[in-house]
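PROTEIN DESIGN WORKSHEET
SECTION A - STRUCTURE
LENGTH: 299
TOKENS:
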């Protein structure tokens, strides 16, 4: 059986994760197929949707897979390109493949504002957050929070994230965001010690947890944080599983901060990189992801 891995042709952010998926697929007697979202042809005809792929000047070939793992859709240069790639990946589902994570759930979970609203409405603990395009609202929010984290709505690996305490300093950051037509996302800083937890959930079950110990205030492994094995408490497991369920995901990395006021869910990553987690825990999420996908295909 051919099992797809959806990613952009232009760049691969975490090649180790793709290699793990391909190895897990082969170990189970199947063939991994790389599906490049920026090389697809979506043919729409009465009664059906056909997805084909051509790399370079090669002849298009139909993408015929019963299931695929969605890794990433690449770097977007404008909104239309973002929409095209989301719906090109969605076309795989329309053509009959089970895509994991489901494309529209992936898109919503990758949007910090959309995801946090869903988590908050479900009663899950999230940090106080304000999202706006108005720089003066951002200014007043930083003054209210006292210490705040400013970030992009769509971002990863801790890049372009600011820690601010002075609203006047924050105002300059907001001016930059306004100049490039970016909304302002301000979150109250949580006192969480030297790190936070990432709990990996696959198929409604937490498979393990790591503690990411930062050298500074950022706890992303890509920013130099050291992954350590962590004991998964019952409360952390319940929060992580519920968060992934609320967002409609099959798998995800749930970032959880432990504070004097209890646990808070910082975000849920539907395109998590798991090399640090694998190093810390000895657990390879790719094995669990592929097994879960194969179960979905059989149903």
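SECTION B - SEQUENCE
RESIDUE ASSIGNMENT:
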């Amino acid at each position: 059986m051919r099992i797809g891995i959806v990613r952009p042709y232009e760049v691969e952010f975490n090649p180790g994760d793709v290699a793990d998926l391909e190895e897990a697929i082969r170990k189970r007697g199947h063939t991994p197929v790389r599906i490049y979202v920026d090389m697809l042809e979506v043919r729409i005809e009465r009664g059906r949707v056909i997805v084909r792929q051509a790399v370079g000047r090669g002849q298009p070939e139909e993408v015929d897979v019963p299931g695929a793992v969605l890794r990433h859709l690449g770097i977007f240069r404008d909104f239309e390109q973002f929409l095209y790639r989301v719906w090109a990946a969605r076309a795989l589902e329309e053509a009959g493949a089970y895509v994991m994570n489901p494309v529209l759930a992936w898109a919503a979970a990758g949007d910090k504002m959309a995801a946090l609203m869903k988590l908050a409405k479900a009663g899950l603990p999230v940090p106080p957050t304000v999202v706006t395009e108005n720089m003066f609202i951002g200014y007043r929010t930083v003054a209210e929070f006292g210490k705040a984290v400013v970030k992009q709505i769509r971002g990863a690996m801790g890049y372009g994230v600011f820690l601010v305490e002075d609203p006047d300093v924050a105002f300059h950051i907001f001016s930059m965001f306004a100049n490039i037509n970016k909304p302002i996302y301000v979150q109250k800083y949580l006192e969480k010690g030297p790190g936070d937890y990432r709990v990996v959930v696959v198929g409604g079950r937490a498979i393990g947890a790591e503690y990411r110990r930062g050298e500074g205030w950022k706890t992303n492994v890509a920013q130099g944080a050291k992954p350590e094995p962590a004991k998964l408490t019952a409360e952390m497991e319940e929060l992580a599983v519920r968060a992934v369920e609320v967002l409609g995901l099959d798998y995800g990395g749930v970032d959880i901060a432990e504070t004097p006021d209890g646990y808070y869910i910082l975000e849920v990553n539907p395109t998590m990189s798991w090399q640090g987690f694998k190093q810390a825990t000895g657990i390879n999420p790719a094995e669990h992801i592929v097994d879960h996908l194969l179960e979905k295909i059989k149903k």
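SECTION C - NOTES
The chain is about 35% helix and 30% strand.
The two ends are 15 Å apart (CA to CA).
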